TrEMBL record:
GO terms for biological process: regulation of DNA-templated transcription. Residues 178-456 form the SAM-dependent MTase RsmB/NOP-type domain. It comes from Suicoccus acidiformans. The keyword rRNA processing applies. It holds the Pfam family RsmF-B_ferredox. InterPro entries: MeTrfase_RsmB-F_NOP2_cat, MeTrfase_RsmB-F_NOP2_dom, NusB-like_sf, NusB_RsmB_TIM44, RCMT, rRNA_ssu_MeTfrase_B, RsmB-like_ferredoxin, SAM-dependent_MTases_sf. Belongs to the class I-like SAM-binding methyltransferase superfamily. RsmB/NOP family. This is 16S rRNA (cytosine(967)-C(5))-methyltransferase. It catalyses: cytidine(967) in 16S rRNA + S-adenosyl-L-methionine = 5-methylcytidine(967) in 16S rRNA + S-adenosyl-L-homocysteine + H(+). GO terms for molecular function: RNA binding; rRNA methyltransferase activity. It is found in: Cytoplasm. One of its GO terms (cellular component) is cytoplasm. It is an enzyme of class 2 (transferase).
Length: 462
């Protein structure tokens, strides 16, 4: 999108202009919505109400891309439309279809203004024509789509293969509940360093600072942020809390840490779980790896901010080849290993809507191979009697239960240690197999999978 200087000046205070630039960047330039929002809100020229509208427009349009295109298509068929103008039209009809209280004439006037200022007069006329035509025509009906997968794909804006992968695991009604929940505006969650009692104190301090927060139902140290940019709070800068999804906060305590173990966090960036694990290890040591040096810096920064660096070692390394010993040999070394594996991220589709349109079945197959190579190596690094906690933020069986089945089949010395009901606040997250599956529609969090395995103690093998 070419940003014209006069457009930049004239549109500086306009929420829709800022929203459009972000929508376009995510739709056509591989930008990440959550990153753009965080950067924008940190120095927003808009007031609080417009900031909220901006987030609503950004996520609403990105989350409903297929539906908006289905509605828009008859009005632009056969016309060559520039990508940024497509984003502008999607954003405009989103306001008409999904937001009340915005009058048609205001939607048209703002869109035409942007089209003229960032394009030219004729483009303004084109946008004006398309929108006026759209507004006086009844909305196209989704009921005409008779194929279930196709209808769900367009109604909930998600690739058909993901719909099918979910239909293979759930009833259609449950799949629709899940997909509907992905259309909500995501919220931010944070984890307090310390105990549930510390959480109470931090929540009181945040409320005194003007933040609206509530206690997580899922995590005893989790906080849900209802309004305000928590990163600017005193508690955040003092290292009393960190941003982390509530379901991801379940992982660290499942390693049954007593506080003095030698622990490996094999894929640790940006450090949500590493900071949690380190806070549970006052007398132990944590080795945190990530293949990306740049991302590992974030782990370092998060540990430093939370004053947790002293018993942590960081290495930029491919975890599937990492050797802790000086002679380079792989040996059983760790009491606990956390493998929060690289995955297709389908549990994050609410927060990162681009995942709904870009991930492919081939990605899942390729990632499952990577996960196996990482698991193979983790088995060699784990001490007899030690625990391996495997987790992902995705929803496919292939990257979750099937990987655990692979380990159990391949390595008879590994066994499953089922997660018990008294280890979680909400027993409905437990599966029959003793794993955790948090689905995005259950608590409005990210979707998550966690399984716990153990290398059998030596005496069992004798
Ligand atoms: C799901 S994220 C980890 C999130 C992290 N555990 C947290 O709680 O913040 C997966 C991470 O694995 C890293 N990664 C991918 N392949 C890897 C490999 N072979 N060895 C080590 N890290 C790897 C990625 O760079 C990414 O940061």
């Amino acid at each position: 999108m070419k940003l014209k200087e006069r457009a930049k000046q004239a549109l500086q205070g306009k929420v829709r202009w800022h929203a459009l630039q972000m929508i376009y960047a995510v739709e056509y330039k591989q930008a990440y919505a959550n990153v753009l929002v965080d950067e924008f809100l940190a120095q927003s020229p808009l007031n609080e109400a417009d900031n909220r509208l901006l987030v609503q427009l950004l996520y609403g349009v990105l989350q409903r891309r297929y539906t908006l295109d289905f509605y828009l298509q008859p009005f632009i068929a056969g016309r060559k439309v520039e990508p940024w103008v497509e984003s502008l039209l999607r954003m405009s009809i989103f306001q008409k279809v999904y937001l009340d209280r915005i009058p048609d004439h205001a939607i048209v006037a703002e869109a035409v203004d942007i089209a003229k200022l960032n394009g030219h007069r004729a483009l303004g006329n084109f946008v004006n024509g398309v929108l006026r035509n759209f507004f006086r025509t009844p909305l196209r009906s989704l009921a005409d789509l008779t194929d279930t997968t196709e209808r769900l794909s367009i109604q909930y804006s998600i690739q058909p293969w993901i719909v099918d992968a979910l239909l293979a695991q759930f009833s259609q009604a449950e799949v629709e509940r899940l997909l509907e929940s992905l259309l909500q505006t995501p919220f931010v969650s944070a984890r307090v360093k310390g105990t549930p009692a510390d959480r109470e104190q931090v929540m009181q301090d945040l409320k005194a600072e003007g933040y609206q927060v509530s206690a997580s139902e899922l995590s005893p140290v989790g906080i849900r942020v209802l309004s305000g940019n928590i990163v600017e709070s005193a508690a955040f800068s003092q290292g009393q809390l960190t941003i982390q999804d509530e379901s991801s906060q379940l992982v660290a305590p499942l390693g049954q840490l007593h506080g003095n173990e030698r622990v490996l966090d094999a894929c640790s960036a940006p450090g949500g779980k590493a900071t949690h694990i380190a806070s549970l290890l006052p007398g132990g040591e944590l080795t945190a790896l990530d293949i990306s040096e740049r991302k590992l810096q974030k782990v370092h920064d998060n540990l430093a901010r939370m004053d947790l660096l002293d018993h942590v070692q960081l290495f930029a390394s491919d975890a599937s080849k990492f050797t802790p010993s000086k002679d380079g040999s792989s040996q059983a070394f760790y009491d606990r290993i956390y493998l929060d594996a690289p995955c297709s991220g389908l549990g994050l589709m609410r927060r990162k809507p681009d995942i709904k349109y870009t991930k492919t079945p081939a990605d899942v197959t390729a990632l499952a191979k990577v996960q196996d190579r990482l698991l193979d190596h983790m088995v060699t690094l784990l001490k007899p009697g030690g625990y391996l906690v495997y987790s992902t933020c995705t929803l496919t069986r292939e990257e979750n239960e099937a990987r655990v089945a692979y380990v159990l089949e391949q390595y008879p010395k590994m066994e499953k240690v089922e997660i018990q009901a008294d280890e979680v606040l909400k027993p409905e997250v437990l599966t029959e197999a003793g794993d955790i599956r948090v689905w995005p529609q259950q608590f409005g969090t990210d979707g998550f999978y966690i399984a716990r395995l153990r290398k059998k103690p030596l005496e069992v093998n004798n």
